[in-house]
Write a structure and sequence with these properties.
By secondary structure, this protein is of the alpha/beta class. It has two domains: about 15-45 and about 305-405, Aspartate Aminotransferase, domain 1, CATH 3.90.1150; about 50-305, Aspartate Aminotransferase, domain 2. About 35% of the residues lie in helices and about 15% in strands. It contains twelve helices and 17 strands. It has helices at about 15-30, 50-60, 80-90, 110-115, 135-140, 195-210, 250, 275-285, 290-300, 305-330, 355-365, 390-405, and strands at about 35-40, 100-105, 125-130, 150, 155, 160, 180-185, 210-215, 240-245, 260-265, 270, 275, 335, 345, 365-370, 370, 380-385. The strands form five sheets. The chain has a seven-stranded mixed beta sheet, with helices on both faces. The chain has a four-stranded antiparallel beta sheet with strand order 13-14-17-16. Helix 3 (about 80-90) runs parallel beside helix 9 (about 290-300), helix 4 crosses helix 5 and helix 10 (about 305-330) packs parallel to helix 12. The chain binds pyridoxal-5'-phosphate (PLP). Pyridoxal-5'-phosphate binds near residues 188 and 216. Pyridoxal-5'-phosphate binds near residues 132 and 247.
Length: about 400
């Protein structure tokens, strides 16, 4: 008799965004004529750049000719893309990453969820809290996290690293041993950044305690402040303790195309085994490579024209973020983030928790955001607004928020 993987039963009933969708749908059913302004889920709204679309067409046309047709892609990615990434994302910033240390994937969500497979079942997991939920759910499905306290909204077997305004959303080093640490900067959901000196402390800590950092840099392209690190490998010693995840989703509007990559340095060795070799072995067994056409489109992002066009889109979103932040400041609502990332982390109005703020804003301003508590215990008291909207939606939402507070 077959049985289900009982770990799935440990997952909390509702994924955050499903619950939001459910509440919004219920509201719309009751109020069909009201326009709901969505600043909730962080999907891009601008179309792909001209350069990317042109390359997509070229790559599609190649598939009609016997000499340029491509079947299965290499499971680690095509050399043309890996070489360009090594040059443009790393060498240009003074970081040496070899193309073989870059593994192309269909996006950072898969990599963030799958990477835990490389670690032992008893690995102690630590996450910056509030947290991108994938880091936790994937470890629940793998059986590392079993004891969820629904009343407290926290896992007893997970080490939470609280991030709040008093530590400017950069957590303190853990007091007890942890094995796998998930950090994300620029941060989702808080929009916060980490300085190179702060990140260096984490790298030193990981090397000293033989922990591994999973550094999620999905929002790296939003960094405007030239002093901030774009990659964890800008820190000394990171190659022996860190894996970095990157994504084309928010950087170049690839949420629908699907492309990302994972960096595992050769020097990252655990129990005498290279994690890069393990990951290549894993991908070889479970993944058949990101499509050629999409990898070509990804390569086009790095062309001069491609860079210029994608930067324009990012600047547009950052302008949205500034408008939201200025709007909140004008009504004296405390807000963080938005300067080097596409998210605004608003402090809830006095006396309201995150879901109360959600319901209030939906009902009174018809604005949908994301309750901070959905991202972890330290998210309670906050509310995430996403800057990935059409300008008109953003302006209407700010106006509406101003009117109800
Ligand atoms: N990591 C973080 C922190 C994210 O916020 C997201 C998407 O929202 C991802 C990873 C997933 O990116 P992708 O679209 O490449 O799967």
């Amino acid at each position: 008799m077959a049985h289900i993987n009982a770990n799935f039963k440990n997952l909390p009933a509702s994924y955050l965004f499903s619950e939001i969708a459910r509440r919004v749908k219920a509201y719309q059913n009751q109020h069909p004529s009201i326009e709901v302004l969505r600043l909730g889920i962080g999907d891009v709204t601008l179309p792909l750049s001209k350069t990317v679309v042109t390359r997509l067409h070229e790559a599609v046309d190649q598939q009609r000719l016997i000499e340029s047709f491509r079947g299965y892609a290499p499971e680690v990615g095509y050399d043309f893309l890996k070489q360009t990434i090594a040059d443009q994302d790393f060498k240009k910033r003074g970081v040496v990453i070899e193309p073989e240390e870059i593994i192309i994937s269909d996006g950072a969500k898969s990599d963030a969820a799958n990477i835990q497979e490389l670690f032992s079942a008893d690995a102690v997991i630590a996450v910056g809290d509030p947290v991108y939920p994938v880091y936790i759910d994937s470890n629940v499905m793998a059986g590392r996290l079993k004891n969820y306290d629904a009343a407290l909204g926290r896992w007893h077997d997970l080490v939470y690293l609280p991030m709040n305004s008093s530590n400017h959303f950069v957590p303190a080093l853990p007091a007890a041993q942890v094995d796998l640490i998930y950090l994300c900067y620029p941060n989702n959901p808080t929009g916060a950044t980490i300085t190179k000196a702060e990140l260096q402390e984490w790298v030193n800590y990981a090397n000293a305690t033989k922990a591994v950092i999973i550094f999620d840099a999905a929002y790296e392209r939003f960094i405007k402040d030239p002093s901030l690190p774009h990659s964890i490998y800008e820190c000394e010693g990171a190659k022996t303790c860190a894996i970095e995840l990157r994504s084309f989703s928010k950087a170049a509007g690839f949420t629908g195309l699907r492309l990302g990559y994972c960096v595992i340095p050769r020097a990252l060795i655990l129990d005498g085994t290279s994690l890069l070799d393990l990951w290549i072995r894993r991908q070889g067994s479970k993944y058949n490579g990101a499509p050629y056409i999409i990898q070509q489109a990804g390569e086009a992002v790095y062309s001069e024209q491609g860079q210029r066009e994608t930067q324009e889109a990012i600047d547009f979103y950052l302008d949205n973020a500034r408008l939201i932040k200025d709007g909140l400041a004008s009504i004296h609502l405390e807000a963080y983030g938005g300067d080097n990332g596409p998210y605004i982390w608003m402090k809830n109005p006095e006396g309201m928790n995150s879901w109360e703020t959600f319901d209030y804003l939906l009902d009174k301003a018809h604005v949908v955001g994301t309750p901070g508590s959905g991202f972890g215990p330290s998210g309670e008291g906050y509310f995430r607004l996403s800057a990935f909207g059409q300008r008109e939606t953003i302006l209407k939402a700010i106006q509406a928020i101003k009117q109800v507070f």
